[in-house]
């Protein structure tokens, strides 16, 4: 679907994905053209519940574009972030419930582009995996049954295992929404692009062998 859309809760399709997507949260000015999905995070937009116990601000949110794949899958994209401030990020996002979600991020954390993950079960954890060169990296979310895995890659060929986890009960995990998120928690906003988007209807053959 070429061109741009700018609306709340609108179903859209990408040719690479076998399921429709819908916009959530603040307006991300999402657009798609020639295989490139683009989204914009506004100033101080993020989804994170501090583990120190502060409540999530109801106004705290970030633009998301999500859909519900069936069965086992891998969702892959090459993510490029227009870094301007600490913690700006392009994200592959997984949503199971209002306080159950996970993020696989290419994030400026805080001084260097870094692969980071967040898993929220009421409150959020936050973990850095490894630093990458430049403003782009490949990200992959996978599901089998009620288990999820995060991988990242510098070239889209050799994948580094980041984490495996469960989220929600089996029924909610199988109904999870997955897709794309842009964030700028402390900055004035940033642009994120997703290219080489790919969907595979299976679980990776090996989690730690680079496949």
TrEMBL record:
InterPro entries from the UniProt entry? ConA-like_dom_sf, DUF1349, UCP022704
- Span of the secretion signal? none
What Pfam families does the entry give?
A: DUF1349
Q: Which domain of life is it from?
A: Bacteria
This protein's name: DUF1349 domain-containing protein
Q: Which organism is it from?
A: Streptomyces formicae
